[in-house]
Amino acid sequence: MQWQLTFLLIGLCEVLQAQELRVNDKVTGNLLQEALLPCSFVSADQNARVSQAIWFKDGANIAAYSPALGIKVKDSDRIQFVNPSDTSTPLRITKLLASDEGKYTCEVSIFPEGNFKGTTQLNVQAVPQNSANVVQVVAGDQEMTVATCTSANGRPPAQITWQTSVPGNVTTDMTNNTDGTYTLISNYRITPTWTADGEKITCTVTHDGKETAIPLKLSVQYTPVVTIEGYDDNWHLNRKGASLTCNAQGNPPPTIFKWTTANGSPLPPSVHVNGKILYVDQMDENVNTTFKCEVTNAIGSRASQQEVLVREKPNSSGAGTTGGIIGGIIAAIVAVAVVATVLMICRQQRKNRTAKEDEEFEGPPAYKPPPPTIKRPTEEAKEEELLELKPPIHFIETTDELQMTPNKDPLPMNIEFPSAADDDYLEQLNPIYNELSLPESASHKEDQGFMMSPAVYV
Ligand SMILES: *[C@@H]1O[C@H](CO)[C@@H](O)[C@H](O)[C@H]1NC(C)=O
Ligand SMILES: *[C@@H]1O[C@H](CO)[C@@H](O)[C@H](O)[C@H]1NC(C)=O
Ligand SMILES: *[C@@H]1O[C@H](CO)[C@@H](O)[C@H](O)[C@H]1NC(C)=O
Ligand SMILES: *[C@@H]1O[C@H](CO)[C@@H](O)[C@H](O)[C@H]1NC(C)=O
């Protein structure tokens, strides 16, 4: 409400006064291009006329216009009035320089209204050229530059950040160019290890709110990293068709794989080599040695060794033997069978118990006593129940028989012992009573005491 009123008043004022000098608060121009600074007088008075207009830059007079006396501009090669008229005296600056940045004030004398002025901030910017490259290095323990990112000739200065999982240090240098632009060179420095090879790294240049991401991959050259695969600690006389594989990583990729024995003796006649794989056609005493694989790339060579033990007989406890596999399978089958049995028993018991609980919680109307003809399963259930109920039974036996039970009643609710006539009630209260007592004498006192225990227990 207040807002609308304010606007209304301002509007009213404008209509009444209806005169103002219009300039832009802010103008941005690109280096070497041009910028236009508007300045116009708005009035309801048809007869209002600019009698003189002067543009100041940071307080200094740079251009003057008078309908009577003409135009005077300091740097007329680059600065002009654009179609000056009785009400408008815009200024154009061409071939923008960084030094053109500043506060421009348009000051006009209006006849007959008087003097008006307005100020515009002119910013000169330059979009930088961004580039990045990796510096290929050789693994070592000296920290060195592995990637460089350049943002050249930007204004205002750009910002450079790096994103990578490889820990390192950043050094960034800025050069203030004579044209008012800035050049940034940022280096990413690490102590190059072979694990950094091929890792991703991104240089992000931020300028004028825009981000430019340049993704790269590090390149660290290193001598091959070698491992030997294929020995299962169960090499024995006369075993056939085993092999050792020489795995190697390297930058540049390894070119030469050389298999030898560690002690310098020639390779046994029962092995043959094909590139990175050493095949053992049939094992004999000569294979009982240490094999060495040496891998070479442009950076250097590295070797790995595999000690081999040739046994007289197969190692039956070894995980790789057929016997071991069969034994393992049998053991697994037995284990599965045991687990399955246990699970089945547990499930059966839970089913019995939940069935009982359901009956209890459903309440009297839902309960239906099982027909006496199919008693056999419940007999079994009772036996399970007996097992579960051992502790309460024990309690009754060790105390002063029946006398104790009702008095020391461990029930949370005070349930009285029902007489034989109260069978129905007891059934509703505890269905187990029914299940257990039907085949036996319900009037037996000991049974009654015993019968209560399920309620205690459940
Ligand atoms: C970064 O520089 C610090 C100080 O010069 C140095 O201790 C550290 O090891 C460098 N970090 C890496 C990853 O090179
Ligand atoms: C370069 O420009 C920045 C930002 O304008 C300024 O802070 C710095 O002092 C300048 N450096 C040199 C050497 O002129
Ligand atoms: C292999 O050498 C080991 C000792 O290094 C020895 O105990 C074993 O008997 C040798 N095996 C054969 C088949 O000669
Ligand atoms: C058989 O191989 C296993 C596992 O490789 C090893 O622990 C065990 O010592 C070997 N048995 C013999 C007799 O060498």
Strand and helix layout:
Layout: H1 2-17, E1 19-22, E2 26-30, E3 35-37, E4 40-43, E5 49-57, E6 60-66, E7 70-73, E8 79-81, E9 91-93, E10 102-111, E11 114-125, E12 129-134, E13 137-138, E14 144-154, E15 159-164, E16 169-176, E17 182-190, E18 200-207, E19 210-217, E20 220-229, E21 235-236, E22 240-251, E23 256-261, E24 271-274, E25 277-282, E26 290-296, E27 301-307, E28 310-311, H2 322-362, H3 376-388, H4 390-398, H5 401-407, H6 423-429, H7 431-437, H8 445-457
Parallel strand pairs: 2-11, 13-20, 21-28
Antiparallel strand pairs: 1-4, 3-9, 5-6, 5-10, 6-7, 8-9, 10-11, 12-14, 14-17, 15-18, 16-17, 18-19, 20-22, 22-25, 23-26, 24-25, 26-27
Account of the 3D structure:
This protein is α+β, with helices and mostly antiparallel strands. Among the domains are: 12-125, Immunoglobulin-like (Sandwich), CATH 2.60.40.10; 129-218, Immunoglobulins (Immunoglobulin-like), CATH 2.60.40; 223-307, Immunoglobulin-like, CATH 2.60.40. It contains eight helices and 28 strands. The protein has helices at 2-17, 322-362, 376-388, 390-398, 401-407, 423-429, 431-437, 445-457; strands at residues 19-22, 26-30, 35-37, 40-43, 49-57, 60-66, 70-73, 79-81, 91-93, 102-111, 114-125, 129-134, 137-138, 144-154, 159-164, 169-176, 182-190, 200-207, 210-217, 220-229, 235-236, 240-251, 256-261, 271-274, 277-282, 290-296, 301-307, 310-311. The protein has a six-stranded mixed β-sheet with strand order 2-11-10-5-6-7, with no helix packed on it. A five-stranded mixed β-sheet has the order 13-20-22-25-24, with no helix packed on it. A four-stranded antiparallel β-sheet has the order 12-14-17-16, with no helix packed on it. A hairpin with a 2-residue loop joins strand 24 and strand 25. Helix 6 (423-429) packs across helix 7 and helix 7 (431-437) packs antiparallel against helix 8 (445-457). The longest helix has 41 residues, at 322-362. The radius of gyration is 49 Å and the shape is elongated. The two termini are 72 Å apart. The structure holds 2-acetamido-2-deoxy-beta-D-glucopyranose (4 copies). One 2-acetamido-2-deoxy-beta-D-glucopyranose is lined by residues 233, 315, 317-318.
